[in-house]
Amino acid sequence: MQESVTGGCQCGRVRYAVVIDSDDAYLCHCRMCQRATGGVSIAFKAVARADLTWTTREPDRFASSPIAHRGFCAACGTPLTFEFADDNATGLDLTVGSFDEPYRFRPTSHFAIESWHRDWLDTRDLPGKRSADNPSTRDRWMKIVGKLPD
């Protein structure tokens, strides 16, 4: 199933369109991803460079290690890519959260399991709360925007 999907950063400065052939994605638990995102892991979708078009502008890039760059928006800080630095790399990874419809993707594997945080892998039994049920968050959104975010 080849399909063109879109995404971009939070502020809209960096936008992309990419052709994908599946909804498969993966979770990376490496220490560099943890530091780059401030999280315990990050969800990525591997894509072919040839199938990716930056529709507004290319992301800014940070050399996060001797072998890789990370694309991001310098205006809003959204992490967008993981890219090997060598010119022979035919693919790159886009952050699942940057897609316009991230819910379509499903994790099919874990990478860098030597640094994963096991307690964060399965949290489905923890209690949960909707944003609308938190008065301090809800009331601020309603006062300033008039509605809750999507």
In short:
This protein is mainly β and 150 residues long. 11% of the residues lie in helices and 37% in strands. It has helices at residues 31-37, 135-144; strands at residues 3-8, 15-20, 24-28, 42-48, 52-54, 60-65, 68-72, 79-84, 91-95, 106-111.
> So what's the oligomer here?
single chain
Query: What spatial form do the alpha-carbon principal axes imply?
Result: globular
The portion of residues assigned to helices is: 10-25%
Point out poorly predicted stretches: none
Order of helices and strands: EEEHEEEEEEEH
Main sheet attributes: strand count, strand direction, barrel closure: 7 strands, mixed
Strand order of the largest sheet: 6-7-8-9-4-3-10
* Rounded mean pLDDT score: 95
The span between the termini is: 27 Å
Radius of gyration: 17 Å
What can you see in these coordinates?
With 150 residues, this protein is mainly beta. It is 11% helix and 37% strand. A seven-stranded mixed beta sheet has the order 6-7-8-9-4-3-10. Strands 1-2-5 form a three-stranded antiparallel beta sheet, with no helix packed on it.
Give a topology summary.
Elements: E1 3-8, E2 15-20, E3 24-28, H1 31-37, E4 42-48, E5 52-54, E6 60-65, E7 68-72, E8 79-84, E9 91-95, E10 106-111, H2 135-144
Parallel strand pairs: 3-10
Antiparallel strand pairs: 1-2, 2-5, 3-4, 4-9, 6-7, 7-8, 8-9
